[in-house]
Design goal:
The structure is a single chain. The chain is α+β, with helices and mostly antiparallel strands. The chain has two domains: about 220 residues; about 150 residues, 2-Layer Sandwich (Alpha-Beta Plaits). The chain is about 65% helix and about 10% strand. The protein is built from twelve helices and seven strands. The strands form two sheets. Strands 2-3-1-6-7 form a five-stranded mixed sheet, sandwiched between helices. A two-stranded antiparallel ribbon has the order 4-5. A hairpin with a 2-residue loop joins strand 4 and strand 5. Helix 6 packs antiparallel against helix 7. The longest helix has about 35 residues. It is elongated, with a radius of gyration of 31 Å.
């Protein structure tokens, strides 16, 4: 049984236009999606490209042949851009797109004048499509591996690899006596593209929704002003670190940073200036601590820093490095330089120390720092290990 190439091409055109409209409508009805509209535009471009090739068969207008294959190639490039946008991947962008189209034009010139071949135009596009899709699959997998969207991303990457492999096989020299229609490729290729477009669109919308929910969940854990963990999140993070410190029998430290005279800044320059100052200070603190330290916004003008496996001397050094960095630099707000200082309270807990006790000690220490004139660091007395309560077996008393 042979496949009717005309029917398959019409089916592919219908799928391209139908999925394009579906994706565009989805992007209009679902706020927050980042790539569905561009993916829909790519599907429409793919359908238009194949429609031009279909018209070329009856008219034999060479311009339609070139425009059709350029439409298919542009559609693939738009697909890759949509996937990069959904996954948050920063690709080469317009430069790569122009280079790919330039390679297509060079290949067409070669097969038109230097080495005339009826299949040269299609083979040039197929090779470029294979390279672009294979690279896109690799970028997606390498960037989202281990993330919350790994399952839909893996499905998209597998489908991209399948289409790339099929396109490359199609571009290989055909067997003797095997005549392929140069306008569209073989019926098998057209069928693979039609089916792949349908499954890819489903997986892309799945990926888009998964990324949207992951972003919303992350947004609920991040302070919108500073970009650091918000108060509930940083408390949860330091509880995890405290449990790890208890199991490893290592000390831990907590530092609380408080912006000096923050209320005066708000009164004089407005809330916007205060937000910019908080964001600026948060960036300096984050850049002056260790990669595995936990930083979050703790209060209106306070930041909380959890330093695992640190002694009193080490925690003081880390806190002072951040405090001095803020003191030495000026915060620029609307072209004005504002001098900013912070007061810091540090508390160190030995292995097994109660977390609430260490937090309370750090809070008392920052109060002392503000009372001593601000712009300084105060270290609270060492918090010792919580005494273990003796376990008495049931039925055994003091006289046992």
């Amino acid at each position: 049984m042979t496949l009717d190439i005309s029917t398959l091409v019409l089916l592919t055109i219908a799928i391209g236009f139908g999925l394009g409209v579906l994706s565009v409508v989805f992007s209009q009805r679902q706020p927050g999606v980042r790539g569905a509209r561009l993916w829909g535009a790519a599907m429409l471009a793919f359908g238009a490209g194949y429609a031009l090739l279909y018209v070329y068969v009856s008219t034999r207008n060479v311009a339609l042949l070139y425009a059709g294959w350029i439409g298919v190639l542009c559609a693939v490039l738009m697909m890759v851009r949509a996937l990069n946008r959904i996954c948050g991947i920063k690709g080469p962008g317009t430069v790569l797109d122009l280079c790919v189209i330039g390679f297509a034009l060079v290949g067409w010139i070669f097969f038109t004048f230097t080495y005339p071949s009826p299949l040269g135009h299609a083979d040039t596009i197929l090779v470029l499509v294979s390279v672009v899709l294979a690279r896109a699959a690799w970028d997606i997998w390498s960037n989202v591996r281990g993330s919350r969207i790994v399952v839909p991303a893996a499905a998209v990457a597998v489908l991209l690899c399948a289409v790339a492999a099929m396109s490359m096989l199609e571009a290989l020299p055909p067997a003797t006596g095997n005549e392929l229609p140069p306008e569209f490729g073989s019926p098998v290729l057209v069928l693979v593209w039609a089916v792949s477009l349908a499954f890819l669109t489903v997986c892309v919308l799945w990926l888009e929704v998964s990324q949207l929910y992951a972003t919303m969940e992350t947004a609920g854990m991040v302070d919108v002003v500073t970009g650091l963990s918000n108060r509930p999140t940083i408390i949860a993070e330091i509880e995890v670190e405290h449990s790890r410190s208890h199991r490893a029998k290592t000390p831990f430290s907590i530092a609380i940073f408080g912006m000096d005279n923050f209320g005066n800044v708000i009164d004089e320059h407005g809330q916007r200036a205060g937000d910019q100052m908080l964001k600026w200070a948060a960036g300096l603190i984050r850049s002056n601590v260790r990669p595995y330290d936990k930083v979050g916004r703790y209060g209106r003008e306070e930041f909380l820093l959890m330093m695992p496996m640190t002694t009193e001397k080490e925690s003081l050094g880390i806190a002072e490095r951040s405090r001095q960095a803020i003191q030495k630099q000026a915060c620029v707000v609307d072209g004005r330089q504002l001098g900013v200082t912070v007061s810091v309270g540090v508390a160190v807990g030995e292995r097994g120390a109660d977390l609430d006790a260490v937090l309370h000690a750090a809070d008392e220490a920052i109060s002392q720092a503000k009372e001593q004139g601000r712009n300084c660091t105060v270290v609270a007395p060492l918090i010792g290990m919580v005494p273990e309560v003796p376990i008495v077996a049931e039925g055994q008393g003091a006289n046992a």
